[in-house]
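Dear Dr. L.,

I hope this message finds you well. Following up on our conversation about the binding site, I have prepared a predicted three-dimensional model of the protein together with pyridoxal-5'-phosphate. For your records, I am including the exact sequence and ligand specification that went into the calculation, followed by the structure tokens. Please feel free to forward this to your student if that is useful.
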Amino acid sequence: MKFSTKAIHASQPSEPETGAIVAPIFQTSTYEQESPGQDKGFSYSRTNNPTRQRLESVLAELEGVEYAAAFASGIAAENAVLQAYLRPGDEVIIPLDVYGGTYRILNKVFQPIGVVVKQIETADLKAVETALTSRTRFAWIETPTNPRLLINDIAAISKLAHARGALVVVDNTFATPFFQQPFELGADIIVHSVTKYLAGHSDTVQGAALAKDPAVFEPIKFLQNATGAVPSPFDCWLTMRGLKTLELRMLRHQENAAAIANVLNGHELVRRVYFPGLPDHPGHEIARRQMSGFGGMVSFELNGTIDEVVAFASSRRYFTLGESLGGVKALICHPATMTHASIPAETRAQLGLSDTLLRLSPGCENAEDLVEDLLEGLAEVASLRKSQKPVSASAR
Ligand SMILES: Cc1ncc(COP(=O)(O)O)c(C=O)c1O
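The resulting structure of the complex is given below.
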């Protein structure tokens, strides 16, 4: 079964009692038992729920494994993975521009209980090799990274990490299983902010954690019930609805992102464009090898002042200023004050997260409209500059 067929048919048969072709939402907290302890596989909806179970099966099918656990948010999924494995003295490697919430949970929740967090340029294999020790529990990578969209070589990092006995966790939120299959490349665990492309419509917050090996998955599954951050049946249903069009949406997001990257690249008011599909992107060749596309995100540094960046981001017609990404409606984000604000300014500077960096999540709108909106914004910056130029002495 090919990807788009799986997304529509896998684990989604018609409902047996009525023939409804869309699975119902099992909005129930508990289940009737025939006699004490005798149930039909469901006893309480924190532990298991038929709607959630269907979503988990679809997610597992799309990532090519058998085990998936759905959570109430991406961070809840990450927390379960971290809590399942990290003990005082353990070390974790994370990318320099890891998602701000991942940085925060590791540094504010796990570091105080003795976990050592090593933040390195994971796109540099030498740096990964140097950072790995016998205490490394996880090489935790995002690829493409957020927001610079750097590419981490999953196969090469998995080889290095496995040689040291570490597990490889891939945050596959940006690429999605449509563009990237991390388990095939050696990853042990995948986490998702399902909130983003998988659900795809900016109307739900959810997460997921998946593993290839049942023994690796078991403690994560245990924590799903034991710590209880589960999504509601309705949220799971929304995600299943969204997943059916994942392939169509990802192709459109990518097409829009590429059109934008090509127009911004070389524009006089743009210092730098980050899009893995550009041939001069540092991870372009690895992306070609390990992904089946370049994803739907574009970031760029505006060649201007903070005030200009803020004005540009706040006044777009189609790019709504907001956190998050991956929905059908375009979003623009200023990482320094929004998604990555939890990283101190000096650290952000060291990490190469410029205060003039803007992250775009083109939606499924028409590419020409999106490009026009951005070009209008750049023209506004240029004309504002001209009007503010001090009048020269000769002109007085
Ligand atoms: C790459 C990445 N991973 C994880 C998360 C956290 O997911 P959630 O916001 O669903 O908790 C995000 C959120 O923006 C993200 O961008």
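In brief: The chain has 14 helices and twelve strands.

With kind regards,
A. P.
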